[in-house]
Each structure stands twice: as structure tokens, then as C-alpha cells.
Amino acid sequence: MADLKIIKDISIIHLLALKGYQPKSIKNSNYWYLSPFRHELRPSFKVCLRLNRWYDHGEGVGGSIIDLIMRLHKINFHDAIIALSKDEFKTYNVSQKKKSTQSSKITVTKILPPQHQALLNYAKRRCISSNLISKELKEVHYQVAGRSYFGLGFQNILSNWEIRNQGFKGCIGKKAISVIRNDMKNLKIFEGFFDYLAFLELSSGPINSDILVLNSISLVNQSFKFLNKYDKIHLYLDNDESGKKTSKSLINSCKNVCDKSHLYSQYIDINEFLINGKNDEHKIFRSEYFK
After folding, report:
1. Three-class SS of residue 56?
2. Is 68 exposed, middle or buried (0-12, 13-18, 19+ CB in 10 A)?
3. Has residue 116 got a pLDDT over 90?
């Protein structure tokens, strides 16, 4: 039997390169790819160079290079080991000493109203106004391994922070869904908090519902316990395979669920629709919303 430690140290990044996959962006030690498991327009497949591990945010699965080969080729563990024992991979051993959990722990240092110009400019590029950012988000400062960072923060039901800035997308603490209660009998569900903000920009009117933001499509199961109380549920998820799959699951599991993604069917999500959609398309969206 091959040495599992040696096999698990084979670089996932080099393996993907051998198979013709190149990263769409590199942020610190994270390499972002279009998922090798499905067609998509926006990269959701991450490889952490430091840990040599992968994670597919679209499906909520990840693991070692062995798990990747098993999933890519639909083979079992034994056959994956045989495939990775070939000579073509032997020069791609990462052999990196992993940092301790303590050294990589993220610690929040302060929470402010959004005011840093870099964050406001980032939001502006996504067509979200500074007034809306100030109302809905916080400016979260945090440290990782002694280095200081900051980003726009959106709190989940565990009081942890979903963080976004120009170079980082992640969560400080355990990921969970976010729920905004307005004492309504209707609910709108979004995939990420920038989709929720884009909806607010597009609607330009009062919010006549409660809000649920998944923060990751993989967290949809956390939402089910909140859904039975609502008379009507509208879905504003992404127009990709995972978004459609999740919408179908919610429609089949709950009553009075309506998929609203047809309103931005030519775009991957609502935020892209806000940025790139035409004025007459935006008008149609608003007229549908206020029916």
C-alpha cells in the first residue's frame, strides 16, 4: 500500500494544472477555480495552498487530494490511491509544515460603522450605496497570525461575521444563516448578503417581508426550521446549477414557495443584475416586486 501521507502531500494545485484547470484568481494562499464538477460562471472552488485542501462552496463539500480524485473520476478510495501513485505526481509533493490552529485563529479587534474609503469604494463597484452599507453592515477589524485586516461584516444567527472586501470572502467564527425579522408573514431568501443589498437597491421601496440570507448554499438545511410560519416565500438564488438545485429542494419541501430568479435570468445573481442590467430590466423587476 502506498504511503498515504506522501500521497496527501501531492499538490492539488499542480494536479489541477495537469488536468487543464487554472485558477481564476489568487488571494493570499487561496486559489479560486471554476468548479471542475459542473459548469459555472463565477469561481466557487477554492484550494488552500497552505493546507493543501480543497472546498467547493457551490456544493458544500471538500477534502484532500484523495477525495478530489475520487469525486473527479467517480472511483473508490483504493483506485484513487493507485491513480495518485503514478510517477507523474511524484515531483509535486508540497511537504509544507502546517501552521498551528492557534497561529491562524481569526480574532475580531473592533467593530465600527462602515467608514473606510476602501470598503465604501468596494461596495460602490458593486453598485451598493454608502447609505445602505451604513444601515445594513459593519466595518469589522480582525487579526490573523498577528496581522491586521478589515472588511464589511454581516452578522449571522450565531453572532459571527460574514466578511467581504476586495480580496477576501469568508467568515469569522462558525458559518450560519442570517435572519432579519420584520414581523411579516412573507419571507425572501437570498444566497449571499450582497444579493440582499442588491435587492434593496433595486426595489427602492419598503421591505414587506422577513429576510433569510443563506451565506452559503450548503447551509440551506439550517433554514427549514424557520420556514413553516410564513404564508409566502420568495427565492432569489443564483442562476447556476447549485442555485437551481436548492430552489427545487425548497419548493418541494415547503408550501407557497415561488422562485423569482426568472426576473434576472440572464445574470448569475441579483448583484450582477444590478451592476449590468439595463434600466428597462430593472423597471420590470420593480413592477413585479410591487404587484
Report:
1. strand
2. buried
3. yes
